[in-house]
Specification:
Urease, subunit C, domain 1, TIM Barrel, eight-stranded mixed β-sheet, 10 helices, 16 strands
C-alpha cells in the first residue's frame, strides 16, 4: 500500500508537510517526502489529500475486554477479590476480543493497547500488550507478559479491609508486596542453583520482573503511594511504571530522580475517591516540563477508550506542548510499554499500524478517516 500526499507525523523525525508512507505486508517499508517518491509499484494507492498521517494511537493502561461493556458483573473479570496476591493471573485468560470497546478503539485510531487486571489486589497479575483487531487474543499479542500489576492506596486497602482481611492499611499493602518479592528472589536464587524440586506456579511469574524483562505496573494516585512504589522498586532493584500518578505534579523532583516513567490519567472522570482529589489535566504538562517520560491513559472503562485523543487534547489545553500531546499517545506510550521496536512511530521496519485523521486528532471535530493495522485497512470512514 502507498499512502500519498499526507502530512506525515512520524513521531520520531520532523514533520513532513507533504509526504508518503509505503507498506509491504504488515510492515512499513518507506517514509518520505513526495519530492523523493520516484516510482509507484503495482500497489494500492491511498491519496489522503493533506490529511494527518500518524502511527496508530496507543492506550497504555486499560481493562478493555476484561471489564466488558454491557454485561455488568457477568462480564467483569478484572479483579479476583478472593486473594490479595494473584501474580499467576494472566490477562490473556480474561480478555474477550468481542468486547464492543475494541471497535470503538479502532474507530478512534487506537491500534494497540496495554490491558490487564484491575487494582483491587496488591498483586493483580500479568498484563498483555496487544493489537485492537482480531477475534483470537493469541493472534493479537505484541508482548506477553508485558508487565506485572501491583496496586497501592485505597483500592487494595479498602477491598480487603472491608472484608476484615489483611492487608487493611497502606503499611500492610507495602509489607505484602515486599514479602512476596523477597520470596521470589529466594526462589530465583534456588532455581539458578538447581535446588528446586519443582516449579512454584505463584512465584514463577516474578522471574521476568526480577530479570528486568518487564516492569511492575504500579497503580498509585496519591503522592505518598507513588513514593512507596518508588521506594520498594529501588530496594528490590526492579523497574516500574507509575500508573495514574494523580499527584505526581506535587513530587516532580522525586519522580525525576527515580528515572521511572508515568502513565497519567484518567482525568476525564469524577473525583470519586479521596486519593484523586488533586486530579488535574495540568499534571502531564508539569511532569513533561520536568523531563519525565509521560504517556496518557483513559484507564478504560473509567473513561471510554475512544476518548484517549480528547484526554491528550485536554492535557495540551492545560499546558502540555501540542507535539508532546501526540507523543503521549504514540511513541512515549510505546517506550513506556517497551514495544517501541514494533509500534509508536512511522519508521521503516516497524508494524504498519497507521491512522489517518482529517486534522488534529486531539480536536473534537476531527474524524478518523482510516485505521490500518498490520498493513490492512480495518476501518474506513464512510461519512
Amino acid at each position: 500500500m502507498l499512502i500519498i500526499n499526507g502530512r506525515i507525523f512520524t513521531m520520531e523525525e520532523s514533520l513532513i508537510e507533504c509526504g508518503f508512507v509505503r507498506t509491504k505486508g504488515n510492515l512499513i517499508e518507506e517514509v518520505g517526502s513526495m519530492s523523493v517518491l520516484s516510482d509507484r509499484k503495482d500497489e494500492k494507492i491511498l491519496d489522503v489529500r493533506g490529511a494527518w498521517v500518524m502511527p496508530g494511537l496507543i492506550e497504555s493502561h486499560a481493562h478493555i475486554g476484561i471489564t466488558e461493556e454491557k454485561w455488568g458483573i457477568i462480564g467483569d473479570d478484572s479483579n479476583e477479590m478472593t486473594n490479595p496476591s494473584t501474580a499467576a493471573l494472566r490477562a490473556i485468560d480474561g480478555i474477550n476480543p468481542m468486547d464492543p470497546a475494541f471497535h470503538d478503539a479502532i474507530e478512534a485510531g487506537i491500534t494497540s493497547v496495554m490491558a490487564g487486571p484491575g487494582s483491587a489486589n496488591v498483586i493483580g497479575g500479568q498484563f498483555v500488550f496487544m493489537k485492537t483487531q482480531g477475534r483470537c487474543i493469541d493472534n493479537m499479542i505484541v508482548k506477553y507478559p508485558a508487565a506485572m500489576k501491583v496496586a497501592f492506596g485505597e483500592n487494595p486497602k479498602t477491598t480487603y479491609g472491608n472484608q476484615g482481611q489483611y492487608p487493611s492499611t497502606r503499611m500492610g499493602v507495602a509489607a505484602m508486596l515486599r514479602n512476596t518479592l523477597h520470596k521470589a528472589i529466594q526462589y530465583k536464587c534456588k532455581k539458578e542453583k538447581g535446588e528446586l524440586s519443582e516449579e512454584d506456579f505463584e512465584l514463577e511469574p516474578w522471574l521476568p520482573v526480577l530479570n528486568k524483562e518487564i516492569p511492575l505496573k504500579a497503580h498509585a494516585h496519591r503522592a505518598d503511594d507513588i513514593l512507596t512504589a518508588i521506594r520498594i522498586a529501588k530496594e528490590i532493584d526492579v523497574n516500574i511504571t507509575i500508573d495514574h500518578g494523580t499527584e505526581g505534579h506535587l513530587i516532580t523532583d522525586e519522580i525525576k530522580a527515580s528515572g521511572y516513567p508515568v502513565i497519567v490519567g484518567t482525568d476525564l472522570t469524577s473525583r470519586s475517591k479521596l486519593e484523586v482529589q488533586n486530579m488535574n489535566f495540568k499534571t502531564c504538562g508539569i511532569l513533561q516540563k520536568a523531563g519525565i517520560l509521560c504517556a496518557i491513559t483513559t484507564d478504560h472503562p473509567v473513561a471510554l477508550i475512544q476518548s484517549l485523543p480528547l484526554c491528550a487534547g485536554l492535557a495540551v489545553k492545560h499546558g502540555l506542548p501540542l507535539e508532546e500531546g501526540l507523543r503521549a499517545i504514540t511513541i512515549n506510550a510505546a517506550k513506556i510499554c517497551r514495544v517501541d521496536d514494533r509500534v509508536g512511530s512511522l519508521k521503516k521496519g516497524k508494524d504498519a499500524d497507521i491512522v489517518i485523521f482529517s486534522g488534529n486528532p486531539m480536536e473534537i471535530f476531527t474524524k478518523t478517516l482510516y485505521t490500518i493495522i498490520d498493513g490492512k485497512i480495518i476501518y474506513e470512514n464512510q461519512g
